[in-house]
């Protein structure tokens, strides 16, 4: 069985534990949670992109 790289856990911890304001899901249902998680990840990636480029 292949091992999962440590970077996956590191990135997940950065998204949840950084001062993004995300601590728990506000909506109910799998579709709503998937959409909310998508927005959280997009915001994190945009923030990281701005920090790395500017």
Folded structure, characterized:
The protein is mostly helical. It has one domain (6-53). The protein is built from 2 helices and no strands. It is globular. The model has no long low-confidence stretch (mean pLDDT 77).
Low-confidence stretches: none
Q: What is the strand tally?
A: 0
Given helix and strand content, the structural type is: mainly alpha
Largest sheet: none
Tally of helical segments: 2
Question: H/E series, N to C?
Answer: HH
Number of domains: 1
From the structure provided, what is the oligomeric state, counting identical versus distinct chains?
single chain
- Please compute the radius of gyration using only Cα atoms: 13 Å
**Overall pLDDT score:** 77
Question: What is the helix fraction of residues, given as a range?
Answer: 55-70%
N-to-C terminal Cα separation, in Å?
41 Å
Beta-strand percent range: under 5%
Give the overall shape: globular
Pfam families: DDE_Tnp_1_6
Domain Transposase DDE: 20-50
Protein name: Transposase DDE domain-containing protein
Structural features:
54 residues, mainly alpha, 67% helix
Brief sketch in words of this structure:
With 54 residues, this protein is an all-alpha fold. The chain has helices at residues 6-17, 30-53.
List the helices and strands and how they pair.
Layout: H1 6-17, H2 30-53
């Amino acid at each position: 069985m292949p091992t999962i790289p440590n970077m996956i856990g590191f990135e997940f911890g950065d998204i949840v534990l950084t001062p993004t304001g995300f601590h728990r899901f506000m909506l109910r249902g799998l579709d709503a949670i998937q959409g909310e998680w998508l927005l959280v990840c997009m915001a994190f990636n945009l923030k990281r992109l701005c920090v790395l480029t500017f």
